[in-house]
Amino acid sequence: MTGLGSRLGRRARRTAAGLAATALAGLGFALPAQAGHLTVTMTTWVGYGPMFLARDLGYYKEKGLDVDLRIVGDSTLSMGAMAAGQIQGTAVTLDEILKYRSKDFCFKAVMALDDSHGGDGMVTGKDVTSIADLKGKSIAMNEGSTSQFWFNYLLAQQGMTQSDFKVVNMTADAAAAAFIAGRIPAAVTWEPNLSFVREHNKGKVLVSSASTPGVILDVLIFRCDVIQKQPADVDAMVSGVLKAVEYTKTHQAEAYADMAKSVGGYLSKPADFTAAAGGVNFYDAAMNKSYFGTVQNPGPADKVITLGLDIWGKLGKIKMPVTYPTVIDPQFIDK
């Protein structure tokens, strides 16, 4: 599959077992919380660009904050590093964090960064007209990841369950490769794999996340102790990211060029970053307020939490009862 990039690790690639053991100590992460400094990790993903843009434009510095942004190949490692107290925050999908919340590991989402608006999808043969056509057949996807969550969401909308299919566990890139090679009839994957299938006439995108707005949502999370002890720093970062999103609206070319360089990886070329950005919605302040709502009057985020608990609960991935206040802290966007 020449030409396909990799988003390795934006979605979880491993089980939650042994988080502390798989933390990032080997990569030099041993950074206790301190006022005026935050270390935040993320995988290579277009939706995380505004965090880098805010840094490069000096928006964090304006409020006396130094943010150390680090790309990590696997979101599970970032969660492990947070659990071990080695980093303060990370960017990850809302559904994914539900699997990690436990009595011993407290963290909360403080803002929405982006949602997938066509960046994720299911590729099939051209003769397939609906997911129901694939009943009893094999579908490749990364089990335990947002791909599996989204697939189960689609099934729930149509009165089906995962047991109606034969799920083959592969990374999203391997799943796309297997589909393109004709070894499997369908795969749940993401960009740039979807575009590759379209552009090389290897099948079709049966359904994409463009039809499920707000379901696959990336959020910025911090440990609870960081939120409690460094609220001004968390506020400064949230404000900086939101300011960067506004800058992007009026200076798109310059913003995308900067974010491409900073995010790097398969997005390092401005043209590739621009193409990938077409599959997400960057969340500004108004979108954050609308999506999260308040503790007293939750927005759509509450529905995704309920949905995630149902899906991951049936798959045996939830450690403790989770509610909106358990994993969401809207104080930094509720202004």
Notes on the structure:
The chain is built from 13 helices and 11 strands. The chain has 335 residues and is of the alpha/beta class. A 6-stranded mixed beta sheet has the order 2-1-3-10-4-11, sandwiched between helices. The longest helix is centred in the C-terminal third of the chain and has 20 residues, at 231-250. Residues 1-23 have low confidence and may be disordered.
Cα shape: globular
Radius of gyration over all CA atoms, rounded: 19 Å
- The ordered H/E elements are EHEHEHEEEHEHEHEEHHHHEHHH
Number of helices: 13
List low-pLDDT spans. Answer: 1-23
The SS-based structural class is: alpha/beta
Q: For the record, give the distance between the C-alpha atoms at the N and C termini, rounded to a whole number.
A: 47 Å
Order of strands across the main sheet: 2-1-3-10-4-11
The quaternary structure here is single chain
How many runs of DSSP E, i.e. beta strands? 11
The share of residues in extended strands comes to: 15-25%
Q: Level of helix content? A: 25-40%
Give a brief rundown of this model.
By secondary structure, the protein is an alpha/beta fold. The chain has helices at residues 49-56, 75-83, 94-97, 146-157, 172-180, 193-199, 224-229, 231-250, 252-263, 270-277, 285-292, 301-314, 324-327; strands at residues 37-42, 66-71, 89-93, 107-116, 120-124, 138-141, 166-169, 186-190, 204-208, 217-223, 280-282.
Features:
single chain; 335 residues; alpha/beta; 13 helices; 11 strands; disordered N terminus
Topology:
Blueprint lengths: L36 E6 L6 H8 L9 E6 L3 H9 L5 E5 H4 L9 E10 L3 E5 L13 E4 L4 H12 L8 E4 L2 H9 L5 E5 L2 H7 L4 E5 L8 E7 H6 L1 H20 L1 H12 L6 H8 L2 E3 L2 H8 L8 H14 L9 H4 L8
Parallel strand pairs: 1-2, 1-3, 6-7, 6-8
Antiparallel strand pairs: 3-10, 4-10, 4-11, 5-8, 5-9
Helix pairs in contact: 1-8, 1-9, 8-9, 9-10
